[in-house]
Design a protein that fits this description.
113 residues; alpha+beta; Nuclear Transport Factor 2, Chain: A; 4-stranded antiparallel beta sheet; 3 helices
Length: 113
Amino acid sequence: MVRAMKWFPATAGLVLGLALYAPALAQAPGGDSLGAGWREQQNEAREAVRQGRLAPLAVIINQIRQRTPGRQLDAGLEQWGDRQVYRIRWMTTDGRRIDYIADAVTGAILSDH
């Protein structure tokens, strides 16, 4: 019984984590940064940052952190009309979720909703 109790928090965390991210994993591939093919997309984004074609996501995260205290939930590269953008999902210290849209080339924050 004691052995099973030690594993309960880790198992509960894993189940909760999967439940929180299941909707993102189930979305159809295409314009969503969290859809199928996310690993390949991350590799392409890293290469574009290395080549100077995209702003580093870390710089944008720091801008958001200064603007809105909290933590990053996830982030990804998406197409927004004719431009590439980062969508950064953010949790504020008071528990609100904000989706930030930032121009992936300039790093400018375009939207927060």
